[in-house]
Design brief:
InterPro entries: Glutathione-S-Trfase_C-like (IPR010987), Glutathione-S-Trfase_C_sf (IPR036282), Glutathione_S-Trfase (IPR040079), Glutathione_S-Trfase_N (IPR004045), GST_C (IPR004046), Thioredoxin-like_sf (IPR036249). It holds the Pfam family GST_C. It is a single chain. By secondary structure, the chain is α+β, with helices and mostly antiparallel strands. The protein folds into two domains: about 1-85 and about 200-225, Glutaredoxin (3-Layer(aba) Sandwich); about 90-195, Glutathione S-transferase Yfyf (Class Pi), Chain A, domain 2. Helices cover about 55% and strands about 10% of the residues. The chain has helices at about 10-20, 40-45, 70-85, 90-120, 125-150, 160-170, 185-195, 195-210, 215-225; strands at about 1-5, 25-30, 55, 65-70. The chain has a four-stranded mixed beta sheet with strand order 2-1-3-4, with helices on one face. The mean pLDDT is about 95.
Length: about 230
C-alpha cells in the first residue's frame, strides 16, 4: 500500500496521477498546506523540507519496514520502478525520460511557479519580477513545444515525465501563457487530458479541496516562511 501525503497543487497532482495510471493500491493522507499541516512533526519525519507531496511505501521490496520518499520527482521515479511502468529500464530511453523529468523539476515548475506567484499572489504587482518570470516561463513553453514537434510525448512514449509536466501546463493561463502560441503543447495537453486516470485525478482533487482560495492567514504560512518553523495547527 502506497500512502500519499498529498495536497491539491501541481506537484501533488503528479504523484496522484502516477498511482492512478499505474494501478497501484494507495490511500491519501491529506496535508492541508493552507492550515500549516506541513509543519506537523509526523509529516516532517517523511518530508523534512515541509513541502508536499511525499509518500510512504508500507510494503517496500526490501521488507525492512515502511519507506518514505519526499520530492515529487523522486516519488515518481520510485513509483515507476515499483510498478515497472512509465520509466524504461535500458539506459538510453530511461535517460530520455529522466532528463525531461528533471527539466520540469529544475525549470518549468520553479519558473512557472514564480510567474504564478508574482502575477496572482504578490501583495503588490511589481513589473520586473512579473515580466522576468513570465518571459522565462514562455521560453520554457517554447522548449517544450519544439520537443513535442518531433515526439508524441516528451520521453518518446507516455511516461512519468509527462505526468510531471502536465499539472503545470494545466495552469498555463495562470503563468501568463497562451496555449495558442504553442500548438504542439496544445495537442499533447489535449491527449493527456483525455486519459481516464487524469480525469480521475482532478475529480479526486476537487473533492478534497472544496475551498481553494488562499486566505491572508494562509498567505503568511505559504509565502512568509523562514528557517524557523511555525507551530503546527
Amino acid at each position: 500500500m502506497i500512502e500519499l501525503l498529498y495536497w491539491t497543487t501541481p506537484n501533488g497532482h503528479k504523484v496522484l496521477l502516477a498511482v492512478e495510471e499505474m494501478g497501484l493500491p494507495y490511500k491519501i493522507t491529506t496535508v492541508n498546506i493552507s492550515k500549516g499541516e506541513q509543519f506537523d512533526p509526523t509529516f516532517l519525519a517523511t518530508s523534512p523540507n515541509n513541502r508536499i507531496p511525499a509518500m510512504i511505501d508500507h510494503a517496500p521490496e526490501d521488507g525492512a519496514g515502511p519507506l518514505g520518499v519526499f520530492e515529487s520527482g523522486a516519488v515518481l521515479e520510485y513509483l515507476a520502478d515499483k510498478s515497472g511502468q512509465f520509466l524504461p529500464k535500458p539506459a538510453r530511453p530511461r535517460y530520455e525520460v529522466l532528463q525531461w523529468l528533471y527539466w520540469q523539476m529544475g525549470g518549468l515548475g520553479p519558473m512557472a511557479g514564480q510567474a504564478h506567484h508574482f502575477l496572482h499572489y504578490a501583495p503588490e504587482r511589481i513589473a520586473y519580477p512579473s515580466e522576468r518570470y513570465t518571459k522565462e516561463a514562455n521560453r520554457l513553453y517554447g522548449v517544450l513545444d519544439r520537443r513535442l514537434a518531433v515526439a508524441d510525448y516528451v520521453g518518446g512514449d507516455y511516461s512519468i515525465a509527462d505526468m510531471a509536466i502536465y499539472p503545470w501546463v494545466h495552469l498555463a493561463p495562470r503563468h501568463g501563457q497562451d496555449m495558442a502560441e504553442f500548438p504542439n503543447v496544445k495537442r499533447w495537453y489535449d491527449a493527456i487530458a483525455a486519459r481516464p486516470a487524469v480525469q480521475r485525478t482532478y475529480e479526486i482533487a476537487a473533492s478534497i479541496n472544496t475551498a481553494p482560495n488562499v486566505s491572508e492567514a494562509s498567505r503568511a504560512l505559504l509565502f512568509g516562511q523562514t528557517a524557523k518553523l511555525p507551530a503546527a495547527t
